[in-house]
Each structure stands twice: as structure tokens, then as C-alpha cells.
Design a protein that fits this description.
Number of domains: 2
Distance between the termini: 55 Å
Order of helices and strands: HHHHEEEEEEEEEEEHHHHH
CATH topology of the largest domain: Jelly Rolls
CATH architecture of the largest domain: Sandwich
Number of strands: 11
Oligomer: single chain
Helix content: 25-40%
CATH class of the largest domain: Mainly Beta
Strand order of the largest sheet: 6-5-8-3-10-11
Largest sheet: 6 strands, antiparallel
Amino acid sequence: MNKDFIAFCQDIKDLLLSTTDQEEIFRRGQSLVSAMAGKPAFLHDVFHRMVTDDDYLMGLRLSADPNEVTLHKDKDGLFSVRLYIWDPAINYPIHGHGSWGIISTVAGLVEETRYQRLDDHSIPGYAKLKETGRRLLAPGDTGRVLPLDLGIHKMGSAVKEHSSVGLHVYGKAIRPGFLEKFELEKESVYRVTYPGMDSRVYVLKALGAIEEPWAAEVLEQAVKDKRPLIRYEAVRALSGHQKEKALALAEAESARESVMKDDFKALHDFLK
């Protein structure tokens, strides 16, 4: 890995170890990210290997987004550094994040559109958004991302002739395991997990649509999973088979400390 990039990652870690003040992290972190984004040569080694080395490519950490490349993940879980290749031919979904972030552009021109969520989360799968602003990020420009509903946005290349490249740093997730993505026209929100886990979530949804006793039996096993997202999707799917049991499970989960406690409460109230 490029020596400048290694030094950059150490600088980010030193910053996070030196303070917990979010404003200071943003202020100093944006300066570091801007300087790194202005040196695209740091991508030479990793891009060369991705293009020419199949074993290296297959060994990269898988992502929930096909246009994302994880360049660094701190061994202590304090932060990660990710690269995004924004294709002008693709309309990327509106989404939120489970952590704070610093975004920047390495090449091209990236447009960011920000949104405010207007609903109260009381209806599972429903979300009403309002656009609050747009900005363009040229190489070296940076922006801030807040977690959850405070950082809902959409990004994409503002250059029609070629893709644009973004360099992002994300902090430790306060809601790990999934991202939320939004459909503006359909006024809906859905969860996206990482490869493998994503397939399991979709299978749970399919089990909710299959009116067979065995489908309910599989869901009853899934509600015992240790991961809150899997339990949530299993309970939601089970409600189509055994509503009273699903209600009781949702009520029990809403009293349990987890990152999805409020989601279970909303599901319980919705099913009532």
C-alpha cells in the first residue's frame, strides 16, 4: 500500500484517539481527507492489483454496494476508508448511514443531494422525504455526513463523459449491520445488509409470502437468531402466518436493549 495512504490512516486513527469531540473530528479530519484526495497517486498500487491480480480482487472485503471498494478497516473498529466509483449512467439510491462520515472527491465531479425525513417511523417500510439542498464536490472538496436520519443523502457523478471517484472516511457505527435506502417516489425505506446476510434477509421475506406450514416453522427458528435485523425480519414475516405470536415477539423485543428496539416497537404498534 502507498506510504502516503498508510500515513493518512495513522493520522486519522491518532485524531480519533486524541478526541471524542465531533466538531473537532470533522474539522481536522476534513483537512486530512482533502489532502489525501488531492493525491490520486495513492490509488496506483491498489488499482493496478485490482485490474491485474485475480486472487487479490477476490480477496477484497465484500460490500453492500457494488461501486464501493474498502481500502482500509481499522483493526480496532474506530474507522474505515472507502472508495466509491460513481457512474453517470446509474441513478444511485438515497440512503442513510450508521455512523458519521467525511466525504470527498478524488476525480471528476460528485453531486450530493440531501434530504430530511418527515415521517415518525411508525409505519414499517414507509418513509417520507423532502429534499433540502444540493452541492457539487470537486477534487479535494469535502463534506460531512451525520448518522441515521441526520445524514440521508444521494450521491452520483455530475460528469457525463466518465465516472467520478470519491474518498470517504466513516467512523464507528452506532447502528451496525445494515444501511437504510429510500425510494422517494414510492415513499418507502428498505434495509440493505452485506453479501450473504442480504440473501438471508430476502429469504425471510419470501417465507412470509409462502402460505405453507413449513415456512412458518422456519421463521420460528429464525426469530431466535442472535442478530437483531434477522429477528426483526423473521418476526415481520411471521406476522403473515401467526399474527398473535408475532405481536408477542415484537412486544418482547421492544423491551429488550438492542439497536432495533424502536423498530420492534413500531412493528408491534403497526401489527396491533
